[in-house]
């Protein structure tokens, strides 16, 4: 890790906090971030050539494993033809078709360069389409660093406009209502107060930013019902859950159809990407057809399309996603069992290729409060213990774990043996 310390010091001279995204800085667990040099399959290699089993997978994007040979080849071929044209290309249509095959509610869609952009554009579109301003979001859900969505809940459930970050004017969040995740009654109350002023409800149908917390079926059913009744746009932010909890995303899993869906991560196979799409009637409000403006110089660029298309192709092959799900389920069950043996109370959530480990007795974990109340200190010790064992979990208790199709049974077994050892140490 020595090399990383020097690199971090150098980076900190030029880049705020030494990182280009805060979670990378290890503030949640203490210590110096590890600089990585390369990655292959389920493994990531640091600057000292230590090899770790990777459960971050670039926060979900690397679902086919790192440097998947077919994805790399597709990228190389595309790159040789030119990196970006700023004109339409056929690959964008293929990507749209491929996404729609799995997520049919996205009748039309537009490609962007990040999840933040997808969420920001979806919100603008929902507001433009409805001619309303208010938006409901949920505490612990993250939709990228979109100004009107950077809001924390106040003391009362219906408190409005409390910016999470300096630089976000109160006026910008004045129309944002922050409610409690998985609390259907709170949403009913908000709709009874503001119903016909609500442009959109934005939700992570499987939350991946308060570690991993699935929605209750009744909660999503209620959102759908209230949005339909009040003419509000239901936006599923599936940037994390898309192609991850199911090939059709959380909406396939729950059988709840949103009006707009946001995607990212997996559909770019590791290249910068995002997408938002939904009902044709709504999407046709976008420029140049409609008046809602949205654009992007590098949107749908051919290299990203090549990486994303190949990733989706590999993932959609018969049995591949089922294999991923089975591996992840085995990891979840193994973690529960090893923790029980070590005498450490844990709760493990799992869906598709995504997993959430919580140090708490209070389960199942379904609320933001339960996540906040879990033992984050103990998570920090677990994280560093696992790192010493060369297993790389997320450097924060509030982040989920991501499994790839290259994590096989032996990788899981090795992870579990290390976990049991570390859990005994921190018991
Ligand atoms: N929405 C969700 C649900 C996310 O998990 C994230 C990022 N983790 C974003 C939006 C923002 O995506 P990006 O970091 O690509 O801007």
Structure notes:
With 427 residues, this protein is an alpha/beta fold. 39% of the residues lie in helices and 15% in strands. It has helices at 2-14, 69-80, 90-102, 115-130, 170-173, 184-194, 217-230, 249-254, 280-283, 302-316, 320-342, 368-373, 376-388, 409-426; strands spanning 36-40, 43-46, 51-54, 108-112, 134-138, 176-179, 198-203, 206-207, 213-214, 233-237, 260-264, 274-278, 347-351, 354-358, 391-392, 401-402. The protein has a 7-stranded mixed beta sheet, sandwiched between helices. It has a 4-stranded mixed beta sheet with strand order 1-2-3-15. A hairpin with a 5-residue loop joins β8 and β9. The longest helix has 23 residues, at 320-342. The protein is globular, with a radius of gyration of 21 Å. The structure holds 4'-deoxy-4'-aminopyridoxal-5'-phosphate.
What is this structure's SSE topology?
Blueprint: H1 2-14, E1 36-40, E2 43-46, E3 51-54, H2 69-80, H3 90-102, E4 108-112, H4 115-130, E5 134-138, H5 170-173, E6 176-179, H6 184-194, E7 198-203, E8 206-207, E9 213-214, H7 217-230, E10 233-237, H8 249-254, E11 260-264, E12 274-278, H9 280-283, H10 302-316, H11 320-342, E13 347-351, E14 354-358, H12 368-373, H13 376-388, E15 391-392, E16 401-402, H14 409-426
Parallel strand pairs: 3-15, 5-6, 5-7, 7-10, 10-11
Antiparallel strand pairs: 1-2, 2-3, 4-12, 8-9, 11-12, 13-14, 14-16
Helix pairs in contact: 2-10, 3-10, 6-7, 11-14, 13-14
4'-deoxy-4'-aminopyridoxal-5'-phosphate (PMP) binds at residues 59, 114-116, 119, 142-144, 204, 208-209, 237, 239-240, 264, 274.
């Amino acid at each position: 890790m020595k090399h990383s310390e020097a690199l971090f010091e150098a980076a900190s001279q030029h880049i705020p906090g030494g990182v280009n995204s805060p979670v990378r800085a290890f503030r949640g667990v203490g210590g110096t971030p590890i600089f990585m040099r390369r990655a292959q399959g389920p493994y990531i290699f640091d600057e000292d050539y230590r090899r770790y089993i990777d459960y971050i997978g670039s926060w979900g994007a690397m679902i086919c494993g790192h440097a998947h040979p077919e994805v790399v080849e597709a990228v190389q071929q595309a790159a040789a033809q030119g990196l970006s044209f700023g004109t339409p290309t056929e690959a964008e249509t293929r990507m749209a078709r491929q996404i729609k095959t799995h997520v049919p509610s996205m009748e039309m869609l537009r490609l962007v360069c990040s999840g933040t952009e997808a969420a920001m554009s979806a919100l603008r579109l929902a507001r433009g389409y409805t001619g309303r301003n208010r938006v409901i979001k949920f505490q612990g859900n993250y939709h990228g660093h979109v100004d009107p969505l950077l809001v924390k809940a106040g003391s009362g459930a219906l408190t409005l406009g409390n910016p999470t970050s300096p630089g976000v004017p109160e006026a910008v969040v004045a129309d944002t209502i922050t409610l409690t995740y998985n609390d259907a009654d709170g949403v009913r109350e908000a709709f009874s107060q503001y119903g016909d002023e609500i442009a959109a409800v934005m939700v992570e149908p499987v939350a991946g930013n308060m570690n991993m917390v699935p929605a209750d079926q009744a909660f999503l059913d209620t959102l759908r019902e209230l949005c339909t009744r009040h003419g509000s746009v239901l936006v599923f932010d599936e940037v994390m859950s898309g192609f991850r909890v199911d090939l059709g995303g959380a909406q396939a899993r729950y059988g709840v159809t949103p009006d707009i869906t946001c995607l990212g991560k997996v559909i770019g196979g590791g290249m910068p990407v995002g997408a938002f799409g939904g009902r044709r009637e709504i999407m046709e409000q976008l420029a140049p057809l409609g008046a809602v403006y949205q654009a992007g110089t590098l949107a749908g660029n051919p290299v990203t399309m090549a990486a994303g298309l190949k990733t989706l192709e590999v993932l959609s092959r018969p049995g591949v996603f089922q294999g991923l799900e089975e591996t992840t389920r085995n990891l979840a069950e193994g973690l529960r069992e090893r923790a029980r043996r070590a005498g450490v109370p844990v709760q493990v959530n799992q869906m598709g290729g995504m997993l959430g480990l919580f140090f708490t007795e209070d389960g199942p974990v379904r609320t933001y409060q339960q996540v906040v109340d879990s033992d984050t200190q103990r998570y920090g010790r677990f994280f560093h213990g696992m790192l010493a064992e060369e297993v790389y979990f997320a450097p924060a208790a509030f982040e989920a774990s991501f499994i790839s199709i290259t994590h096989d049974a032996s990788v899981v077994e090795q992870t579990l043996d290390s976990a049991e050892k570390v859990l005994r140490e921190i018991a």
